[in-house]
Write the structure tokens for this entry.
Amino acid sequence: GAGVSQSPSNKVTEKGKDVELRCDPISGHTALYWYRQRLGQGLEFLIYFQGNSAPDKSGLPSDRFSAERTGGSVSTLTIQRTQQEDSAVYLCASGGGGTAYEQYFGPGTRLTVT
Amino acid sequence: AQSVTQLDSQVPVFEEAPVELRCNYSSSVSVYLFWYVQYPNQGLQLLLKYLSGSTLVKGINGFEAEFNKSQTSFHLRKPSVHISDTAEYFCAVSDTGRRALTFGSGTRLQVQP
């Protein structure tokens, strides 16, 4: 079956602009995660959605970052007034929830803020 | 709060030699442990996981890892590596109540002929 997909694969934007990154999780997965990977570093957790529960936003680095998940499926991560330090690969993962702890990752969106 | 330390940023090794990639974690609660691999220009792929039970877990591509609670370690091993194992390896931990993963900074395994 299809894996996690993300779009766009690459995004170049000017400092101060808003960007939206999209994630399509694996069909039927109730859990969805966003992570950020800066060059040469590990992944940083941003936000976690589980079913209809309130999302865990504890990893969002500032109020310029927000995410939503519509209909329990597709998710959009929005970064407002982008800064150069936002340049990174943004990774989305989905999981089955319940006792299934595995997370399946998408290919990521490479964001470059100029 | 949890943290993961991968002690080696790069590990060069010759083909068919054994390898161990080290991972230590810090947590005040029970954890689940994972190793992910990231091949060049590809997404992250789960290699193996420890949730409970036997402390020696086997994963894909001949890799295995051993959970050592007293040493808070989860080192990854392979008895004989191939050129195709060249990739970035990430150790990750989540606690039993919160699903989000905390990742280490990664270890680049470079297999040389």
Summary: The mean pLDDT of chain A is 92. Chain A touches chain B at residues 4, 31, 33, 35, 41-45, 48, 50, 56, 58-59, 91, 93, 95, 101-108 (CB under 8 Å). The beta strands of chain A are 5-7, 10-13, 19-24, 31-37, 43-50, 65-69, 75-79, 88-95, 104-105, 109-113.
